[in-house]
Amino acid sequence: QVQLVESGGGLVQAGGSLRLSCAASGRAFTPYAMGWFRQAPGKEREFVSAVLRSGGNPLYADSVKGRFTISRDNAKNAVYLQMDSLKPEDTAVYYCAASAELFITPISPISAGDYRFWGQGTQVTVSS
After folding, report:
1. DSSP β-ladder status, 18-26 and 33-39
2. CB neighbours of 15 closer than 8 A, spacing ≥ 6?
3. Nearest to 34 by CA among 85, 107, 104
4. Fewer CB atoms near the end CB (10 Å): N or C, the chain?
């Protein structure tokens, strides 16, 4: 079995920074895509960022472009999200996600339905 363990959430003032970490435990595997989604109270879960196994062409939601940076370490089966210039609107539960290793057809890294494994979520609260 595969488990995703997240850390790094917390309370920060607007303009501050947080770094989220997510590592896979259990059987060794290298997901094709790893990403981050978030869900604020009363809202649907939304895409934040994703990166493929190659590490190239990271993807970002328009709302976080220029402020968040995603990276992954395949040797550690880990993905990170550096969040800078945080805004109160970023307050949400952040979920790490990992896809399967292989696909017959291409997936959409921004689609939650294309991810197989999910972390438990970590709360990020940004005060004004």
Report:
1. unpaired
2. 85, 86
3. 107
4. N
Q: How many residues does the chain have?
A: 128
Q: Hey, which residues does 15 pair with through a beta bridge?
A: none
Interatomic CA distance for residues 16 and 72, integer angstroms: 22
**Contact predicate 118/91, CB 8 Å:** no
Local structure of 95: helix, strand or coil: strand
Among 43, 85, 92, smallest CA distance to 68 is for 85
Q: What is the C-alpha separation between 70 and 48, in angstroms, rounded?
A: 10
Residue 53 token pair? 């196994």
Q: What is the largest CA-CA distance in the chain?
A: 46
Residue 19 to residue 34: CA distance in whole angstroms = 16
Question: Which tens digit of pLDDT belongs to each residue from 27-39?
Answer: 778 899 999 999 9
- Tell me the residue type at 128: S
Three-state helix/strand/coil letters over 6-57: EECCEEEECCCCEEEEEEEEECCCCCCEEEEEEECCCCCCEEEEEEECCCCC
Place of tokens 């920074």: 17
